[in-house]
Write a structure and sequence with these properties.
alpha/beta; globular; binds flavin mononucleotide
């Protein structure tokens, strides 16, 4: 049986196929589809030798080649970290200030850029520092704007932060700027700062985590200083045609981290810094926020559309991309009245061909996962991760709209968590759940279930 899809009103999808020109860099995306960041857990990993961590593997490069073949206008990478031991997650790609612009790591990034761009997509690397969201099993101590530890969540215990010193801040600025320069030279089209989901840049922006009394804390202008210094240093080191974007997040706005009135100042600052685009999304580790708790009807399928309406009027030259919940062409085309690009995360794991299939008129919406997935953030994150792993193994991602496939994935996820618990925090443990049911691994990539 073909996968079940969301119902979509019939619409002319040609607006989604319109090119998007970035004002400051001058780069042009061939259409409005933005493959949102999804941490892949596919880079090299070595528990003992830090320098052998975070090199893009053949599998990681293959995944990007496949998205590149499928008409995504802009393809954002998963988190790329700027320290070997301050990671968003085990298996992320890594570029630190010590990494030279030559050698196996650099060549792997060059290859990743080349294959992704072969069919005209733009590739933008997401750069991240976890700050207080660093898992304690990776490293016990970390830096943050203030020494406020992240409470344990979903079985994760976080590193103990100290207040970042001026030297720490200088190291982070250098780390972001070096990574941007490195990626520019490796052939990437741009970078995106991860200023969302409670990571270090978001921690500086939010009063909840930033209680500093120096020039980096207090007023919104002061809380913006950290990201402003990073952006200026990046711009100083990259070529003028290199895209610089940022991802920000609605939860921090809605729940007193950033007040609505401050959003205007933030947007004006981003535009003055010449950010090519702002990607808006939701959630941090305390409240992941990709769920549908506020979703009442499919008409409001982008969870954050209302929030966008507060932000959009303050951005003109800086383009606006929204990620989170887009599933039907009707909603995507409608959103282009106020937005410039449509971000898709989980649907791009279930269907790496989705952008091409929508533009060719083959489908009018994404696969509709069973309710058990839609309503469970962990399940939907982990299943997307397993699907990406399937793609690089040459398998078609299993069909999340199928109850039987879902039931066996739930069992696989349970086994995965048991193995995680048994590993007792060992850093050898990595990866997404293994799909055990042969029915869900039997189709070669490209042959739908
Ligand atoms: C497996 C997985 C990994 C993710 N990793 C990242 C990440 O590295 N960086 C990021 O900004 N967002 C990450 N996200 C969030 C997505 O970019 C996106 O904001 C979220 O999935 C909501 O969009 P969607 O409803 O289209 O899936 C991840 C999501 C998934 C499912």
């Amino acid at each position: 049986m073909p996968a079940r899809r969301y119902d979509s009103a019939a619409v002319d999808v040609s607006p989604l196929g319109q090119p998007l020109k970035f004002e400051f860099s001058g780069k042009v995306a061939k259409n409005r589809f933005y493959k949102a960041s999804m941490a892949e857990d596919l880079a090299t990993w070595n528990v003992d030798n830090l320098e052998e961590r975070g090199i893009p593997t053949k599998e990681l490069i293959d995944l990007y080649r496949i998205w590149g073949e499928n008409e995504w206008g802009i393809i954002a990478t998963g988190n790329i970290d700027i320290e070997f031991d301050m990671l968003d997650a085990v298996g992320d790609a890594i570029i630190t200030p010590e990494c030279p612009l030559s050698g196996p790591r650099f060549e792997a990034f060059q290859e990743m850029a080349k294959v992704t761009k072969a069919n005209g997509s733009l590739i933008v690397a997401q750069l991240t520092h976890p700050g207080r969201q660093l898992a304690a099993r990776i490293r016990e101590d970390t830096i943050a704007p203030s020494a406020i530890q992240h409470p344990p969540k979903n079985g994760s215990v976080y590193a103990k932060p100290r207040e970042a010193t001026k030297e720490d801040i200088a190291r982070v600025i250098d780390g972001f700027a070096h990574a941007a320069e490195y990626l520019d030279k490796a052939g990437f089209d741009g970078i995106q700062l991860h200023g969302a989901h409670g990571y270090l840049i978001a921690q500086f922006l939010s009063e909840l985590s930033n209680q500093r009394t120096d020039e980096y804390g207090g007023s919104i202008e002061n809380r913006l200083r950290f990201v402003s210094e990073i952006a200026k240093e990046i711009k100083r080191r990259v070529r003028p045609n290199f895209i610089v974007g940022i991802k920000v997040n609605s939860v921090e706005f809605q729940e007193k981290g950033i007040k609505p009135a401050e959003a205007r100042i933030m947007c004006e600052t981003f535009q003055a810094l010449e950010f090519d685009y702002v990607e808006l999304s939701g959630g941090n580790h305390e409240d992941i926020g990709y769920g549908s708790k506020k979703e009442t009807t499919l008409k409001r399928e982008a969870y954050f559309l209302e929030f966008v309406r507060d932000i959009v009027p303050h951005l003109s030259q800086t383009k606006k991309i929204l990620t989170g919940g887009f599933r039907t062409t009707a909603a995507m085309v409608d959103a282009l009245h106020i937005l410039d690009g449509i971000g898709l995360g989980r649907p791009a794991a279930q269907e790496p061909r989705l952008a091409a299939d929508i533009l060719s008129g083959k489908v009018a919406s994404a696969v509709r996962p069973v309710d058990g997935v839609v309503n469970d953030v962990i399940l939907s994150l982990m299943s997307a991760g397993s699907q990406m792993t399937q793609v690089v193994r040459g398998q078609e991602p299993f069909d999340l709209s199928d109850e039987k496939a879902f039931a066996s994935f739930q069992a696989d996820l349970g086994a995965h968590f048991q193995r995680f618990a048994a590993a007792g925090g060992s850093l050898e443990f990595r990866g997404f759940p293994e799909i055990s049911d042969p029915d869900n691994t039997s189709h070669p990539y490209g042959v739908p279930y």
